[in-house]
């Protein structure tokens, strides 16, 4: 008898057939005459009820059926008496595959805090919340590839070990085989990286963009979807040291094309989740609603999770320039409840998260795309606008999240690009390969990066980025 997944069984089983199911015990309750075992195998948020009659399943076996134990159950499908599910299983044979000692298994059936669950990140997929998040995460990964595949974008793998710092923020993790206790030295008395593994200094990538551009300037429309690494020491609920980024890049495309693609993409992903992840979303919406109750009123969302997703799907995003954003902020009074206690200096300063939240959550009450930032606060590769002060950049801001997408039209003019690099002290010989695209057959091109975990925060309604990636890496935290 082959194993049937619980999802399949609950969706389509007919009564009276014999099945085999395998999974982990969530709870067991009952009395001398009957036991009810809630079994979950990860395929769905719903547990399967297994009914065990002590005349058929021995006391010896039932005593090992405790929360966390793994079981193989053979039994008959019967229509369920209880509400909420269509069928249950009348057990004919139960095998305990792996016991779970009730005295030491940490996930006893009670409410656990997210902080506690973060400490046992290796076991948390066995909870309803985390299994729902990881199924949703899978669905979003699939939707990313489906969206681009349907539009004719090619997926390109870009390297994780590189010699460049695409964003120029100097927040890279070094990759080296040099023994720090005994480094080889050169004649100048410096560490001799010529003797390192790659013969030069290397680091983990902060973005696949530069390599993505090389591909776009040959293949047209491409996207990358890979891990990126940033050693920024920001211990916030929005930053990870290792996160996944989706970076599309389009040849023959300007900033408007870029914004159009980003807006269509985000709407598609949210809509995909609404259509395909109904049960998990319903569970996460309820969870998020409970969490909201414990927050101070000023911190609460105006809408529930499902409504927030529908809102993004159905409404046009606001598009404004940086200069317009600054004018709005200058003319707004700080909020009395201290939620938006900001002072914006003058034109030229970078927007802080409180400014972004004000624009999105208070002023426009919808996702906002801000364009044309001052060149001095943005990366070297962005296209200089005719005003000579701003670049063709865009940041997309989401309610409750802040920046979810960052992108730009790229500087395709070789002279202007080299000029920017000189100003920002980026050595030409480091990225001569990048400059070749501007020397040979350059074209206007644009792209953006979507932080996958920021998307996951929005879609799942979770509040901490550590809870939407299975194995979070943050300052001082790298378990297993
Ligand atoms: O704005 P960023 O730094 O842009 C780039 O890396 C460009 N190369 C993208 C491009 O044009 N191809 O990062 C893009 C997005 C941010 O908007 C944010 O969603 C996410 O990546 N992000 C992070 N997510 C989690 N943890 C961090 N430390 C993040 N840093 C950026
Ligand atoms: Mg950014």
TrEMBL record:
Subunit structure: Homodimer.
UniProt main location, coarse: cytoplasm
Gene Ontology cellular component list: cytoplasm
Organism placement in taxonomy: Bacteria, Pseudomonadati, Bacteroidota, Cytophagia, Cytophagales
Enzymatic class: ligase
Subcellular location, record wording: Cytoplasm
Any one GO biological process: asparaginyl-tRNA aminoacylation
Protein name: Asparagine--tRNA ligase
NCBIfam families: asnS, PRK03932.1
Catalytic activity of the protein: tRNA(Asn) + L-asparagine + ATP = L-asparaginyl-tRNA(Asn) + AMP + diphosphate + H(+)
InterPro entries (UniProt xref): Aa-tRNA-synt_II, aa-tRNA-synth_II, aa-tRNA-synth_II/BPL/LPL, Asn-tRNA-ligase, Asp/Asn-tRNA-synth_IIb, NA-bd_OB-fold, NA-bd_OB_tRNA
PANTHER family assigned to the protein according to its UniProt record, in alphabetical order: ASPARAGINE--TRNA LIGASE, MITOCHONDRIAL-RELATED, ASPARTYL/LYSYL-TRNA SYNTHETASE
Family named by the database record: Belongs to the class-II aminoacyl-tRNA synthetase family.
GO MF entries: asparagine-tRNA ligase activity; ATP binding; nucleic acid binding
Iron-sulfur found in the keyword field: no
Swiss-Prot/TrEMBL keywords: Aminoacyl-tRNA synthetase, ATP-binding, Cytoplasm, Ligase, Nucleotide-binding, Protein biosynthesis
E.C. no: 6.1.1.22
Superkingdom per UniProt: Bacteria
Pfam families, A to Z: tRNA-synt_2 (PF00152), tRNA_anti-codon (PF01336)
UniProt domain Aminoacyl-transfer RNA synthetases class-II family profile: residue ranges: 134-470
Keyword Cell membrane: no
